Fold each of these.
Amino acid sequence: VRLPGPGRRTQDQNLLSAVSQGVELSLTNTLTKDVSVSLDYSYTDVNVNPKDEEKFDRFYHQVNARVTYVSSWGLNGFLQASYIDGEPDSDPFDSTIDNPSIVSFFLLNGKINYEIYKGIRPFLAVENLTDSNYARKIGFPQPGRRFFWGVQAQF
């Protein structure tokens, strides 16, 4: 596993143990024949015990709200809002970092597609629509707004 090293570097280390556990809850409601909404919650707790190092824990909460549209004439799409909140992120191997970052951010993602032929769906998707500046781990910033396009084929 890649763990934080001295300063803002990382180092690969073998682990004595790693345990990831959590809970997920989900609610979905169909508002009309074309529109549904869902709300999901997850809690994840990760315990890592690197070889020859002090063990450390990480946790986070995530809430997702999604509106999905599925039409009878081929147009489909969704808009998803996510809020992720975790413990302050610090480097367990470097005590010189005085200001750990808070792993807390909001994301907005969406996707639309249209069935042009049986099982053939061109799509357009966007991740991080609000162009949030966030990182789940110190030194590993996540990309800003990203657009994707493609074709899904189901046979």
Note: Residues 95-99 have pLDDT under 50 and may be disordered.
Amino acid sequence: TTSRICVAFCDQQGEATSPKESIEIFQDIMKETGPNAACYYGIGFAMEAQENVDRAIFNYEQALTIDQNWYLCFFGLSQIFYQKGDERRGDHYFFMFEKYAPYNVYGNFETHRDLCADFLDREKFVEAEAAIQTLSEWWIDNKAAARQKYKYMSS
């Protein structure tokens, strides 16, 4: 089952299958194995690609109900709600994404850069410096752990 899911993800992310085909593949896997967080994520991602945001939300939430460690669902949900103009929910899910994926460079770096830029725009120079300093301290404290995690994941 794990290898079939991995192949389905590779095909989906590499655009070897259409979103519709990906949905069918993940549904077929779940028909054989039962509910699966990875499959719900794959379906949610495909639904999002089809701009069927309500079904994407449903599937991301199903994945998180099964396994809250599927933090990519938090990212997907954050992007959907940002696109819908619901910044409060977008921020909530992005915060959850960062919480469950603390070594995710994208979230942490982007968040701190955005905070810094926002503070600079408002001429709050001390706060802008703090946003960058906090990021620097985080990176110094966590780079060894992050490197180890990525080294493990790539092997």
Note: The CA atoms of residues 75 and 97 lie 6 Å apart.
